[in-house]
Amino acid sequence: MDRFVSQFTNRLDAKGRVSIPAPFRGLLARDGYEGLYVHPTLDFPALDCGGNALLAEISALLDRLPAFSEERDVFATALMGASEILKIDPEGRIVLTDRMCEQAGITDQVTFVGHGHKFQIWEPARFQAHFQESRDKLKGLRRSLSVLHPVSAS
């Protein structure tokens, strides 16, 4: 598998460390990225995380915007300027900074959520609310798509 998938909830230890789920660590290792690239998500109280695949996607986005444009500056500031590179210790743990925890509302537990080329870190209760909202929106989208593209009976 070459994509981050599933959900995992882990507790922060007394020193503020949390273990990255083993499947996610394996994918980061195969990606060849030393550490973990992390930035606040653009729309939610969560953190986007990844390695080379995430950085390549961000670079591709920035490359499509005109050099020195306001749009490029805004995205670069939000995606690169607000980012951190966390060290992964030999046991597969990271330490989330106070700024990261504050942005995501994290206290003693985190939920890791796969998003394909990246994963997110959420405060568990906030993620559950977001997950339910996403499922509800998906049901509405499916209904509207089935009206636009009805399945023909063969």
Structural overview:
With 154 residues, the protein is an alpha+beta fold. Helices cover 44% and strands 21% of the residues. The chain contains five helices and eight strands. The protein has helices spanning 22-31, 52-64, 70-81, 98-104, 124-148; strands spanning 7-11, 17-19, 36-40, 47-50, 84-86, 93-95, 109-114, 119-122. It has a six-stranded antiparallel beta sheet with strand order 1-7-8-4-3-5, sandwiched between helices. Strand 3 (36-40) and strand 4 form a beta hairpin. The longest helix is centred in the last third of the chain and has 25 residues, at 124-148.
Terminal Cα span: 35 Å
What radius of gyration results from the CA coordinates? 18 Å
Shape, please? globular
Helical content band: 40-55%
Structural class: alpha+beta
User: What is the number of helices?
Assistant: 5
Q: pLDDT below 50 for ≥5 consecutive residues: which ranges?
A: none
